[in-house]
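Checklist before submission:
- one chain only
- standard amino acids only
- sequence pasted in full

Submission:
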Amino acid sequence: MGMIINIHQKAKKKNKLIVLPEAQDKRVQQAAQIIQKEKIARVILLDKNNLEDNKKKEYAQVYYELQKHKGISIGDAARVLEEPLYYAALMTRSGDSDGFVAGASYTTPNVARAAIYCLGVDERISIASSCFLMYVPDCAYGQEGAFIFADCGIVPEPDARQLACIAISSSELAEEVFGIPPRVALLSYSTKNSAKGKFVDKVKEALDIANKMKPDLMIDGELQVDAAIVPEVARIKDPASKLGGRANVLIFPDLEAGNIGYKLVQRLAGARAVGPLIVGLNKPSSDLSRGCSVEDIVDCVAVTALRAK
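Returned file contents:
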């Protein structure tokens, strides 16, 4: 688990403030104790009883300005700010914290909505999505056992452009935060025309779009997962691929495949799954699976702190 330890060590040097708006959850409480004891980050635990009235009013005004085009009133905004999740998200937007992590109790759609509405989408990427850092022990594939899996939490049926944007934002996270030189595979049930259909065509189109958006990105598709990560299989199925079976960023064609895929690898291969890390936004936030462990929360806080600028 050297890579995870390295992430924790890097996070310590940044000394960032991360908000955890689920203070009632015992796992979050335990994680906060570990984070503070090991000085991975500074943390604030929030529940409905410790939200500051003056800050609620301030953040409600910010939220109203952000969402008034949807017809909400200042009263609607004030009611939203009774919720610790939105309070945490607006703390992050306003610079009163460096990031937030939630999802132990809140569902992924709730966390994603708060992040998107309050933090805003990066105009360059134009879509929020999520990815996992997957670390598989004693694994020769990927980046010495490390992979980025996307999207596993937010976009149910991405179109070709969305798939390309997910690939780009996930590859940038791999490189900028984890120091992984991205080698991106757009996954499919087909490898280079071994099968046909609209789902294969979507992946091909996504490859064309990604190449135009970021010409220097090492990306290929459509690839079955064995052709993407196993060099011996790649030599048989796609000997001309620039990846050569060495992909470390795996882009799933839809949310079903991504969510099932990461949980299979996590449970059957004993992988460390860090995330979902929400990408494509203006500031960092992370979701959690409601089945998360204390260790998962600590890891997500460390990565969120590491992402903060």
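Reviewer check: The mean pLDDT is 93.
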